[in-house]
User: Fold this.
Amino acid sequence: MKSLTDFDILEIPSETYDAVVVGSGAAGLTCGIALSEIGLNVCLLTKSTPEESSTNLAQGGIAVALPKEDSPDLHFNDTLKAGAGLVKPKMARILVEEGVKRVIDLIKMGAQFETDSRGLLKFTKEAAHSVARIVYYKDKTGEEVERTLLENYRGKIVEGAQTRELLVKNNRCYGVLALVNGKLKAFYAPVVAIATGGAAGLYLKNTNPPTSTGDGIGIALRYGATLQDLEFVQFHPTAFCDESGCFLISEAVRGEGAVLIDKHGRRFMGDYHHLWELAPRDVVTRAVESQKRITGGEVYLDFRPIEERGIDIEERFPTIVRKLKEKGLNPKKDPIPITPVAHYYIGGIKVDSFGRTSIEGLFAVGEASCTGVHGANRLASNSLLECLVFGNRVAYGMYRDWRYLRLDFQEIRITGRGAPPKNSQVYSLEDVKQVMWENVGIVRSAESLTKAIDRLSEIASSSSPWQVRNGALLGLAIAVSAMRREESRGGHYRSDFPYEREEFRKHSEFTITDLERLL
Ligand code: FAD
Ligand code: SIN
Assistant:
């Protein structure tokens, strides 16, 4: 299976650039800014408005080894520890060391982070960090990052451009095909970067914007790219959900002193981990689920200890407090019911340290990529840092390859024939989300994964719209990968294998040939 779209390239209008970047979050923009600075003619495609991204929603901040009691070594060790045996040390070294310079660059570009009366950066704490090393701006660090990067990007942006296919021949990428204003358009370039963000939006309950449906990862899978660690999805322990959806309540809230209590008002996290509420994210997530089961009631986040420390929560967390008040809840007085939901996609397109994928001319960066830096469980606030660090490195990798990769328009005469549906059913994205949430969620088992694989194969081969089939295909790849990992590690928990197994202390890889039997 390659194309999900019928097209003949000769009948489609086109534009040609030195580089195409797909996605306008922190990863795509950082890469686009660096490419433009080098002097390449860049086109950045984005599915919705430029600011609609996970980046824009980020709350907690950016982890960086800048505090005086910190060092890149300490940050490196914390990253390795949280990653449950699967962090790639070379990548983590790059992250923590180059991260210091990248955050300083961002400040030079105009990003405002909180400072003290002397103008020195303030740092907050999040789970599994041994020191407070998160730079932040209230509870809207992401808005500040997105604003700064958008203001500094000088290349072209095409809004409302949903990338649907890659233009690939003989394992070489020549550009992308996007739907712009309801019409297909080809964007040619010798080098292309996928920066389409993660896939947590394929779950019914999640913290992500609607754009996070794993599009770029699903597309790369179809065109033969090697993907990595697909079974690892990070669930965040503290979201507020009601019938209209979910929103995140930042881990920084616990970092500033909030505690988790059960329906009896008992602070229970000590039963599960010596770091209590600041245990690694996967531990807190499962503890919340377990406490709900044991007590048969809700789990609550109690903000009141923050105010007891003299911090005004309205001033420190204005967005969260406003959103809760809109729901009729006052965190100054009432403990807030919370629930774990899908938050971050650890797996993705396998890349080297310059973002190269297994397809020549195709790069990936940010949450869509898998550098191996997060292992089996991402350390909080390491993701924006990854976007800044690898966004720059990928631009450099693209530039190096651009110097010898040329567009050959004879080769580019590509015709796509949409993979024919095997059944005439039409499904919606909600169907995919339901299957993922119920069967490939926080706790998985061979039984639940078998159900997911059956159902997602059916949806992926159906007559459903592009978005649904592409999402179902990635969901299927996640479920198969989760089935193969017969152990529990980091964000991947199997009730039928509830322990780590040494023979699985390795990264998993996945290509489209792994799905041949199922489609
Ligand atoms: P995104 O920012 O998601 O950008 C992806 C872009 O690709 C978007 O512009 C989207 O529209 C576009 N796109 C998607 N599909 C297509 C397509 N088919 N065609 C064209 N364009 C497409 N991390 C931290 O480090 N610190 C935090 O405090 C933090 N808080 C978070 C809070 C929330 C609520 C969420 C959801 C995430 C948070 N994260 C945090 C994670 C972090 O924000 C993301 O991992 C990171 O921003 C991802 O950046 P990105 O550029 O890879 O993707
Ligand atoms: C948060 O603010 O809790 C999210 C931080 C992250 O996902 O890194």
About this structure: The chain has three domains: 7-232+346-402, 237-340, 421-504. The chain has 15 helices and 22 strands. The chain has a mean pLDDT of 96. The longest helix spans residues 89-109.
